[in-house]
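[Meeting: bench + compute handoff]

Bench side (C.D.) handed over the final construct sequence. Compute side (W.E.) agreed to return the predicted structure before the next meeting so the bench team could plan truncations. Sequence as handed over:
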Amino acid sequence: MNPVLLPAVPAPLVRAEVARLPLYDPGADPDEVTALSGGRVIKLSNNESPYGVSPAAAEAVRRSVAGGISRYPDPTGKRLAAAIGTSLDVPAGHVVLGNGSENLLELLCRAVLDPGDLVVTQSPGFALHEIFPRVAGARVVKVRATPGFGFDAAAWRDALAAGPKLVFLANPCNPTGAVLAAGELEQVLAAVPISALLVLDEAYGEYARIDPDYPDALEVLRGHDRPWIVLRTFSKAYGLAGLRVGYGIASDASLAQALDRVRTPYNVNQPAQDAAVAALGDHAHLADTVRRTALEISRVSALLRDAGLRVAPSSTNFLFVDTGRPSDEVARELHRSGVIVKAWREPGYESYVRASLSSPGENDVFVRCLTEICAEGES
């Protein structure tokens, strides 16, 4: 049967800002890589936890589904918001829920930005910290890390002096895994205009809290009379990536209410809400996930460095590795062995790949394949 060819969308129908946007890169399709490799796939492209979900959260999903999913979920997520508020000692009215923390990034841009506004973020960085502001017609300035992936205080001061309306700062940084220490966070706070909203993206914060340099952001921010919001997620260390639930803690209730005004009314499904409440209470599962991940980060980093590769210091569940070759080429060669990583294409970092870690056995396969590919490239 011949395919039906649909007419192209007329160019004037699509906003110019949208037409210029890059597509978000989720990594290679596992089905395509399976067909190419002819065997099992080791997926290291999306920073997922290999240690699964809390048994309590899995049981909560089972009960939620058994109770019926023909009804809409709680539109306010009041039980989850209350649980988050209790665990962090913040008012539930300062908590806003999202379909993953990415949803909250989008809502912030929708609620705050006007065309032409300035947004400051970091480089290398998370693509959506740039894409969502550009959807809103904002200008984006990216502050480069130091050559050692550290915090460049002077560069941040210069960028923030230009008067941004929104500042996206990931701590730990995605894709490098580096953390901003308390003193460095204070330097950012001192330089951010009081009229700007500081968005601290802590998607990987659970992993970083075992790092002695990692600050208690809420404790630091509570001492500053300025607008801010801290974003966190249940997708990473809590292992609920497939359910999509994130949250923000806002400096005041009015900011949380502004985000509620621009979100869809049922943006977090009921099984996700119920699972997140259960996961939040299972401290043992979270601690075990963080402990095992830290051990693998240390072990795999050492193996890669011993093989002569440059690896950014990471306090997360992923590594940023300089392959010394175009990252797209390296990623394609890894696909032949069934290994999927994220090829980084950001200017200045095109030889890097980002790889989340899996089980020790799968990590060993990744190390072997990557080091063999990089050695072949040198010969």
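W.E. noted at the follow-up: The chain has 15 helices and 13 strands. C.D. will use this when planning the next construct.
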